[in-house]
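Hi support team,

I've been running sequence recovery on a batch of backbones for a student project. Most finish fine, but this one hangs at about 90% for roughly twenty minutes before it completes. I'm not sure whether the input is malformed or the queue is just slow. I've pasted the structure tokens below so you can try to reproduce it. Let me know if you need the job ID as well.

Thanks,
M.K.
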């Protein structure tokens, strides 16, 4: 795998110039706080209209909508696990979020995609463990994917950005 296929950015995911951004949503897919709120605000009210038609999404799975007013053409909504201490398959469910989001991206011919740090805000997943899972899952997927050209990790917090930088360096 070419390491340049993974990029790291400190900033706001709604501003990213990529084909698709991933939303850390909840099972209703009807919006919320954090990155979900920011995405709905930036995309505009038509996003909620489309989300209402989807009928929710179970934890670990992903759904796709248009990006509306965002620079990104698509939004992939995935539902991360709530952290309960690690004994409720949280890690497997988080890995499934990354895998299922990328699979959906591939099906739609998406070449560039940006991820937030799923589950590490309101859902309380420890950030370092979450970053390890995200990197592992994405590297594995990229090794088998010829269509996805670039994956961007968009960290909102400096803490997360530093953690990803360290782990990506180690994994290179
Ligand atoms: N761009 C990129 N990352 C962001 C942005 C942004 N504009 N805003 C926040 N983050 P969270 P979760 C980061 O809480 O833990 C919602 O209410 C943030 O710093 O948004 O998966 C949903 O509706 C953190 O690193 O998502 C669900 O109910 C990361 O995004 C619930 O929260 C994830 O934090 C999902 O919780």
């Amino acid at each position: 795998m070419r390491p340049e296929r993974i990029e790291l950015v400190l900033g706001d995911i709604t501003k990213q110039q990529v084909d698709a951004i991933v939303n850390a949503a909840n099972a209703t897919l009807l919006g919320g706080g954090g990155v979900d709120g920011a995405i709905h605000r930036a995309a505009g009210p038509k996003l909620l209209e489309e989300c209402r038609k989807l009928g929710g999404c179970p934890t670990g799975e992903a759904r796709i909508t248009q990006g509306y007013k965002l620079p990104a053409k698509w939004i992939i909504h995935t539902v991360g696990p709530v952290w309960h201490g690690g004994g409720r398959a949280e890690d497997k469910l988080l890995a499934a979020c990354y895998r299922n989001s990328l699979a959906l991206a591939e099906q739609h011919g998406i070449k560039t995609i940006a991820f937030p740090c799923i589950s590490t805000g309101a859902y309380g997943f420890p950030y370092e463990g979450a970053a390890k899972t995200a990197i592992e899952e994405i590297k594995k997927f990229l090794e088998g994917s010829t269509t996805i050209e670039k994956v961007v990790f968009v960290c909102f917090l400096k803490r997360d950005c530093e953690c990803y930088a360290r782990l990506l360096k180690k994994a290179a």
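--
Follow-up from support: It reproduced on our side and the slowdown came from queue contention, not your input. DSSP finds five helices and six strands in the chain. No action needed from you.
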